[in-house]
Amino acid sequence: LVSSFSRIFSTHSKIEMSNLEEAKKLAAYAAIDNHVQSGNVVGIGSGSTVVYAVERLAQRVQTEKLKISCVPTSFQARQLIIKHNLKLSDLDITPSLNVCIDGADEVDSNLNLIKGGGGCLLQEKIVASCAKQLIIIADFTKNSCKLGDQYKKGIPIEVVPTAYVPIKRKLESRFTGEIDLRMAINKAGPVVTDNGNFILDWKNFDQTLNWENVNQQLISIPGVLCTGLFVNMAKKAYYGMADGLVKVQE
Length: 250
Ligand code: 5RP
What we know:
Blueprint: H1 2-10, H2 17-35, E1 41-44, H3 48-64, E2 69-72, H4 75-83, E3 87-88, E4 97-102, E5 106-107, E6 113-114, H5 121-129, E7 131-139, E8 155-159, H6 164-174, E9 178-181, E10 198-203, H7 211-219, E11 224-227, E12 229-230, E13 234-240, E14 246-249
Parallel strand pairs: 1-2, 1-4, 2-3, 4-7, 7-13
Antiparallel strand pairs: 5-6, 6-12, 8-10, 8-11, 9-10, 13-14
Bound molecules: ribulose-5-phosphate (5RP).
């Protein structure tokens, strides 16, 4: 699977947006059809691929009279659930989920993930940890051999705002690479997450690190709330392919 992707990646810049959108939709529809049944509590991830997952859920509620409750992982996910008239729940009401469907920024050959490109990592990790299965949906550009091969924006780390400078210094002294405070697109200030926190993006990291150990080291620093490293969490990944097929990694 990995080698068949390398040719596609080398021409990534030439990939048409419409192909990527079609690939996202293929993955999302396949995952919803294979993993969601009536009576389920479903975690709704964040990002552009999840839009198609919610669209498919809404279709199935209409046509099959599927009965589901949805737990959002972000303000965006909550808005999507409301817009499609799906039943909105939360972790107070439904703390155990059957499945969580979410996107990813990169998936390695062991199903370890980088998430949080959209800044929703903390709630995504909490909701995924409450689900029996985390199912990833993505276009074909997200599949990778090693973390950092494809995704160059770094590993997101959500931090308490007052602690971002000491955390940045600690990370710079312990690891190779660069640590950048994520700024708003207009550079007027830092990105503030749904939880009121800042994000540090760790770029150009050593790709041979043990991600489980690294994640433990990072979350042991006071003020670090969550990392975008999702290690041993995903059960399967669905990739929409350029040729219109769906590939499954498990
Ligand atoms: C947001 C996320 C998203 O799931 C990730 O960025 C993938 O998004 P997209 O489906 O738009 O590629 O982790 O925090």
